[in-house]
Amino acid sequence: MAFVVFPFRYDDLDVFARSVEVAALHPAVDHVLCVGDHPPRSPALEAAGRAAGLGGCVVEVVQQSRLGTLRPGKGDAILSGLGAFLDGTGDRVHFYDADIRNFSPAWIDVAEAALDAGSDVAKHFFHRASTDAQVTWHITKPGAAVLWPSSGFPDVRQPLGGEFALTRRAAESLWSSPHVRERSDWGIDTVLTFEMLRSGLSVHEVFVAGGKDHGYYGSLGDLRVMLFECLDALQRLSALELPPATNHEIDEWAEVPEAVQNAVAFDVEATRPLVTGPLPVEAMSILEAHPPLTPAPIAAWDDHRWSGALRSLLAEFVLGDAGWEEVAFRAWVSRVLFHTAVNAPRGHERAMRALHAAVGVVRRG
Ligand code: GDX
Ligand code: MN
Given Cys at both, which of 102, 193, 235, 296 links 159, Cβ 3.0 to 4.6 Å? Predict the structure, then answer.
């Protein structure tokens, strides 16, 4: 039977109750664990109580434990869920963000089917707006293409996705990794994807036709911490090798829904001011030593410039250093604004092709 984990925050509970009910009612699920960032309190407890009553399934609400060693965040929630699953006897564990407005049994079905067919890992993917997933598209995929060009990592469709399912064997393998166990912050998804590939687990990327309807962002400032932590996660893995061939299967996917084709995933006007204004003094010496990171007009942040900037960031960025964080943030925001201004207006298909092509550019070196 399957064990389902929902990491959730107490400031973000609007769709939580619905998702918990969907999981509890699913015939393959006998345990739902909701891992919050605060000690259990209503209304999460009430929602769990209602869901348990419906499904006859165990539904628990707990606070995340302090398991990793970096900033306490989503990683501690995922690790808490993984540890609790391994302490029990279930066969499989699923993870889903708790803010998916259109969460349905189909999310669980597609993953169960992939594991039934023999894969160790089922990893969900779906169409996204061409301006969404901008940490994935400008940091994680091209970063992996720099560090492990012949591996399957740059081809993983959603390496930062929070939705996936594991067999017990896969869960044990990931839990045994010190890189996974330290990662209490937003870097957790990067290290999990990396270790899935490194350990040779078979990964089946499963397509979710309805896509994921969840909170879009305000300005790109909302992704600032995620950017730094995902970059740091790549850096900490950079000395390790990934095998060239992987057991990697990807579902066929259907057409891109119109709503996704036309969506803009963040507030462009609120984002522009983030790259203007004086840089802090700490940033000056960094820019002198690393010319590819020098501020430039948005129109200049093409694939070539970004390739140089990303290499400098992968080599030298320091998490927690105010100068490095501001330099990295402005370079990334500039790159995302370039993509938004130059590629996105050409339509979803061409914009996505441009993102893929940019990963190819860094991959070829
Ligand atoms: N317990 C706990 N503690 N839950 C958290 C925390 C935390 O510190 N931070 C976030 N969550 C929950 C949150 O409530 C939600 O259910 C889920 O984790 C994801 O957070 P959200 O703020 O919705 O992140 P976002 O921007 O939607 O990112 C997700 O997708 C990204 C991606 O696919 O690109 C998230 O799964 C990222 O890890 C992933 O990079
Ligand atoms: Mn979300």
Answer: 193
